[in-house]
Design brief:
Chain lengths: ~260, ~375
């Protein structure tokens, strides 16, 4: 009796240890997960790329009337709430003046046109995103096409990613956003309070063969394509024009370029 | 030993009930936050961490400060501290409890908290912080409890505790280093992006923790029959004196680098805190108060004549504690977020419910500390009787 009880405790102990060790193994095994194996089967219309990128031609976007439809297109299809309280604001793509879009690049004698030009800013879909490093649950992660995504259902709302993002591209749902959505789009999920969100390069549209909403609404001012493909439209524009990126000195590798 | 915590005077019970009421009120505010969301706090898109994370950061320091009594006793065989190591360990337990609660109340989706364990992410410093904080909590519970029980039974503590005690020493340094790494590894946050941050955190921790411990020792001596000892308090005072000097020195090193290099991204945060930026400067009076308090602390603690006077010592410890609290609990976190990465100045101030929740968490910490110290004092009185 005594010995069998001891044996039982021994086995139970070893089993408990095994259960405890399993998650540790999973961590080290998890590099496998990034491979193609875990990819969901793509639609035959889906647009694919090695690294999605964007070139914004600011010469074609000179007034608030030029950028407003672009911002509205995004807000509408992504169910972005319109909060009255500025603290609670949710922004995926918005306009900033040059000195805020490119802090550190401003100068006293800046061309007046540039100074008050509405620069569109959004998540830079960095090649080496600090937000993904910081997230403790992999709720924000990088896809193989370079897009930095959010899993709204896994996010615990710790906001470490917001502190890690050097571009202020992330928003937190400080309260339930649903009552503040003017017109609900049933094609895209609404979010709940307490989670972080940001621009996703319209991954949901790419999956069905459509370009991002902002690109579509820009009348050709925003180009979108594969940075890994030398023949793509974005690479063509980058070859032809001098472009700048936001805070590229930080080494995050922003995939959004600006022609000034 | 737990039974010792339920045998107390009317005063003891009055204090316990008062803390329970305050914690209850805090919990009420928390339920409100749970319903509405973190929008009831003063945090915003630009200042996305506020009072909660700042208190967490400060209290990790208080917890790590406990090692300043453990290390001399167990590593250098400084016998005098044998009397009070348990006070340091139990202070650490109360502080870590508060840290974990502050993280909890800061989460947008607290019910998903276990995702940190279900999807472990070694690249995230928060993942490691979870490990070191919980580890330190358990180490201190196991070590403190067993050593105290051995003392009560008048036997030497179990042999297997020794390795745990040795591990707990670097572990204490670890918890505050990892907590500093939460901030100092982030690109584009010039205020925190400095290798001195972890050393500075430790220096302020080794000042704030032992300063609080001195105040607690003086209090325990006054209200109970257990005297932590004059020599012990003086030794602690010297530790606080050195640590606060080093803390201020590290800060001045940072000030030199920032203002001699004149790199705006690094300079603007300190300007905001100490001079105000673009007409915003709500923290300016606090930051200067903090500096003045720390300097008063240095003068009173370094000078033997003032340090040896226990009344003056108590004043010095209060100055150091409040000074370091303002530095970390007010300036350190929101200072890093203002100006924002896009160079907008949006200030932060905690709201009424936010302060209510904060006080509630502190009440829980005080309750844990009260119960643990009650047990300690009862055991010590029992042993000496």
């Amino acid at each position: 009796m005594e010995s069998s009880r001891r044996k039982f405790i021994k086995i139970a102990g070893i089993s408990a240890l095994g259960l405890g060790v399993k998650p540790v193994f999973n961590v080290f095994a998890s590099s496998e997960e990034h491979g193609r194996k875990s990819e969901i089967k793509k639609s035959k219309d889906a647009l694919t790329a090695e690294q999605w990128g964007m070139v914004i031609d600011t010469r074609k976007l000179t007034t608030a009337e030029d950028v407003e439809p672009i911002i509205n297109a995004c807000n509408k299809i992504h169910n972005i709430p319109d909060h009255q309280n500025k603290n609670h604001e949710i922004k995926w793509i918005w306009e900033e003046e040059y000195e805020h879009a490119f802090p550190g690049k401003e100068n006293k004698y800046l061309n007046e046109r540039i100074e008050h030009l509405p620069f569109l800013v959004l998540c830079n879909q960095c090649e080496d995103p600090p937000c993904c490093r910081a997230c403790p649950t992999k709720a924000t992660f990088q896809r193989e096409d370079g897009i930095v995504m959010m899993d709204f259902h896994r996010c615990i709302g710790c906001r470490f990613c917001m502190a890690a993002c050097p571009y202020g591209s992330r928003s937190f749902n400080f309260r339930d956003p649903r009552p503040f959505i003017k017109e609900k789009n049933n094609e895209f999920p609404t979010r709940m309070k307490g989670v972080v969100e940001k621009c996703n390069f319209c991954a949901e549209r790419l999956a069905v063969g459509k370009k991002p909403a902002c690109v579509e609404a820009s009348n050709g001012a925003i180009a979108f394509g594969d940075l890994g493909d030398p023949g793509s439209e974005v690479r063509e524009l980058l070859r032809e024009n001098y472009t700048i990126r936001r805070k590229q000195g930080l080494g995050t590798g922003p995939s959004v370029y600006y022609i000034v | 030993m737990l039974e010792l915590a339920i045998k107390g005077s009317k005063k003891y019970w009055g204090w316990v009930v008062a803390l329970l009421i305050i914690a209850g009120i805090g919990f009420g505010f928390y339920l409100k936050q749970l319903g509405f969301g973190l929008g009831i706090t003063g945090m915003s898109r630009d200042v996305s961490w506020g009072f909660y994370i700042a208190q967490f950061t400060f209290l990790v320091g208080v917890a790590a400060g406990g090692v300043m009594v453990v290390l001399p006793y167990y590593l250098h065989d400084y016998k005098a501290f044998g009397r009070i190591t348990i006070l340091g360990e139990f202070l650490a337990i109360a502080a870590i409890t508060m840290c974990l609660l502050f993280i909890l109340v800061d989460l947008g989706q607290p019910m998903r908290m276990l995702n940190v364990i279900l999807y472990p992410t070694p690249t995230s410093v928060l993942f490691w912080d979870m490990i070191v904080l919980n580890g330190y909590l358990f180490l201190n519970i196991i070590i403190g409890w067993n050593v105290l029980e051995a003392e009560r039974n008048d036997v030497h503590y179990q042999k297997w505790l020794k390795p745990l005690i040795y591990i707990s020493i670097p572990w204490a340094v670890g918890i505050h280093t990892v907590t500093a790494f939460l901030y100092c590894g982030l690109p584009g946050r010039g205020f925190w992006l400095t290798a001195i941050l972890a050393p500075r955190f430790l220096a302020s921790a080794f000042a704030a923790g032992p300063a609080l411990l001195i105040l607690l020792c003086l209090f325990v001596r006054k209200v109970t029959k257990f005297d932590p000892g004059k020599e012990q308090i003086q030794s602690l005072a010297k530790i606080v004196a050195y640590a606060i000097c080093v803390n201020v020195f590290f800060f001045l090193c940072e000030v030199f680098v920032v203002f001699y290099s004149k790199i705006p991204e690094h300079m603007d945060h300190i300007k905001y805190l100490f001079m105000g930026l673009h007409g915003h400067g709500s923290l300016v009076p606090f930051m200067w108060t903090s500096m003045i308090l720390m300097f008063i602390g240095i003068i009173l603690l370094v000078n033997p004549a003032t340090r040896k006077n226990e009344t003056v010592l108590a004043v010095a410890c209060v100055a150091v504690f409040i000074g370091t609290w303002i530095d970390k609990g007010l300036g350190m976190i929101s200072g890093g977020f203002v100006p924002s990465p896009l160079h907008h100045v949006n200030e932060y101030a905690p709201t009424f419910p936010e302060i209510g929740i904060t006080i509630g968490v502190y009440a829980v910490g005080a309750l844990v500390l009260t119960v643990l110290y009650k047990i300690v004092v009862s055991v010590k009185e029992e042993v000496s009787a």
